Amino acid sequence: MSHRIDEIDAQILTLLQQNGRMKRNRIAEHVGLSVPSVSERMRKLEERGVLLSYHAVVDPKRLHLDITAFIRVTVDGSELHPEFVERATALPEIQEIHSITGEGTHMLKVRTRNTTTLEQLLAQIQGWPGVHGTTTSVVLSTFKETRAVPVKPTEIYQYEEELV
Amino acid sequence: MSHRIDEIDAQILTLLQQNGRMKRNRIAEHVGLSVPSVSERMRKLEERGVLLSYHAVVDPKRLHLDITAFIRVTVDGSELHPEFVERATALPEIQEIHSITGEGTHMLKVRTRNTTTLEQLLAQIQGWPGVHGTTTSVVLSTFKETRAVPVKPTEIYQYEEELV
DNA sequence: CATGAAATTTAGTCAAT
DNA sequence: ATTGACTAAATTTCATG
């Protein structure tokens, strides 16, 4: 079973990435289809796992989370990686956890209240099993921050089997 | 003019961060208020800039964007920073642009199709005025990726003047 | 797949508290 | 600031092309 993202799917995805609460009738106007057609396409995009989820974005500053930082961590021994990930996942201040190539083994993105809480967070992470070093880049200004991806109609078929 | 986020606002924000398309009547059930009250609170949270926006999340893998990478860039001369940011902002593959402390001056987060397109992107960035060095961390696995922030009712008043 | 029309659900308005 | 009662709008269902 294979599917492709056509021009209209691409438009719908672009619109919903921009405005996740856009009404179906307005989407329908944009793409030139009826409301039930848009609903059906959205349902299928969700079913196929192209549309993963919808989220509100809250301004961290308004909640006194004034520090954003990237923390590059070195975790010794890959047998300790799962535990590291588990501990990091449990902390709501940690928004992203990736394993990476190059210097270090993991990259974290964190939002925290101030330099004091950042220091506490770093101390906590450094105390975890296998954690050797951390390198922290504190964000001074953010100029662009989005999860939106450019969507073009795909010429290539997407085989479900290949993905998960 | 000052405002505080009470227990119910915190619940609403948490729910909408989890599900950005949650219906007002479902939110109302969760928080124990009427639909008009929930609408009014959402309107005010948006007005005050606490709720910034709503977005659908699209799976990059389904669109053949198989590479995620963090690129730490050194841009010489702060007078060249605005141009760097402007050029970077224009590229849809670049999802995040931050100026940072420590090693390098900027941190980029990028999504691109494959190692070939990543190489092209790096070459492009390295050609920009003032760009000296780049250090790339390619993501092998992502374990957590969210923009959701922990929301607790604030005891402290938030003065509009202090923000923006 | 797409559509219009009908049925159902959700959201907006507003006077009253 | 919150509500119920009302009206308007949005969404789902479904028979048909």
Salient structural properties:
homodimer, 164 residues, alpha+beta, Arc Repressor Mutant, subunit A, Alpha-Beta Plaits, two-stranded antiparallel sheet, 5 helices, disordered C terminus, DNA-binding
Task: Provide a descriptive summary of the structure in words.
The structure is a homodimer of 164-residue chains. Chain A has 2 domains: 4-56, Winged helix-like DNA-binding domain superfamily/Winged helix DNA-binding domain (Arc Repressor Mutant, subunit A), CATH 1.10.10.10; 60-138, 2-Layer Sandwich (Alpha-Beta Plaits), CATH 3.30.70.920. In chain A, strand 4 and strand 5 (106-112) form a beta hairpin. Residues 160-164 of chain A have low confidence and may be disordered. In chain A, helix 2 packs across helix 3. Chain A has helices at residues 7-18, 24-31, 35-47, 81-90, 115-126, and strands at residues 2-3, 51-58, 67-75, 94-100, 106-112, 131-145, 158-159. In chain A, the strands form 2 sheets. Chain A has a 4-stranded antiparallel sheet. The first copy, chain A, is built from 5 helices and 7 strands; from the N terminus they run E-H-H-H-E-E-H-E-E-H-E-E. Chain A is elongated, with a radius of gyration of 20 Å. The longest helix of chain A has 13 residues, at 35-47. Chain A is of the alpha+beta class. Helix content of chain A is 34%, strand content 30%. Chains A and B meet through helix 1, strand 2, strand 3, helix 4 and strand 4 of A and helix 1, strand 2, strand 3, helix 4 and strand 4 of B. Strand 6 of chain A pairs antiparallel with strand 4 of chain B, so a sheet runs across the interface. The structure holds a DNA duplex (17 and 17 nucleotides).
